[in-house]
């Protein structure tokens, strides 16, 4: 599929269990595989086309592996992050397990 001067192959293949899998591998060898399977190859293709139409083809193209920056996870949380964590941990729904069904 080519849009706006960018091209990505759309790969659709059977999963061996009666479903169809959808994968896009960009020019940098980044792979996007949709969760689950589709009932038909046409349904998988429609999903890919809808994604390109709705989000643009650039949404399916990642960065070259050498350009990705490593994140520093050894930083203290900000006050806002600490407040958010505190609110999350104080939520009674978590204590009772109701959050799992949301």
Summarize the structure in words.
By secondary structure, the protein is α+β, with helices and mostly antiparallel strands. A hairpin with a 5-residue loop joins strand 3 and strand 4. A three-stranded antiparallel beta sheet has the order 3-4-5, covered by helices on one side. Strands 1-2 form a two-stranded antiparallel ribbon. The protein is extended and about 45 Å long. It has three helices and five strands, in the order E-E-E-E-E-H-H-H. It starts with a strand and ends in a 6-residue tail after the last helix. About 30% of the residues lie in helices and about 20% in strands.
Strand count, sense and barrel status of the largest sheet are:
3 strands, antiparallel
Total strands: the figure is 5
What is the ordering of alpha helices and beta strands? EEEEEHHH
Radius of gyration: 20 Å
Beta percentage is: 15-25%
**Secondary-structure class:** alpha+beta
Count of DSSP H/I helices: 3
Separation of the first and last Cα atoms: 36 Å
Helix content: 25-40%
Q: Whole-number average pLDDT?
A: 84
The coarse overall form would be extended
List the helices and strands and how they pair.
Layout lengths: L1 E2 L2 E2 L2 E5 L5 E6 L5 E3 L7 H15 L23 H12 L1 H5 L6
Please supply descriptive tags for the structure shown above.
102 residues; alpha+beta; three-stranded antiparallel sheet; two-stranded antiparallel sheet; 31% helix; extended
Summarize the structure.
The protein contains 3 helices and 5 strands.
């Amino acid at each position: 599929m080519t849009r706006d001067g960018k091209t990505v192959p759309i790969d659709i293949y059977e999963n061996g269990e009666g479903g169809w899998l959808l994968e896009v591998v960009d020019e940098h060898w980044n792979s996007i595989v949709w969760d689950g399977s589709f009932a038909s190859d046409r349904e998988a293709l429609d999903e890919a086309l809808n994604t390109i139409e709705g989000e643009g083809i650039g949404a399916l193209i990642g960065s070259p592996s050498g350009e990705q920056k490593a994140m520093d996870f050894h930083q203290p949380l900000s006050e806002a992050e600490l407040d958010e964590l505190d609110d999350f941990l104080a939520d009674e729904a978590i204590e009772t397990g109701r959050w799992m069904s949301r």
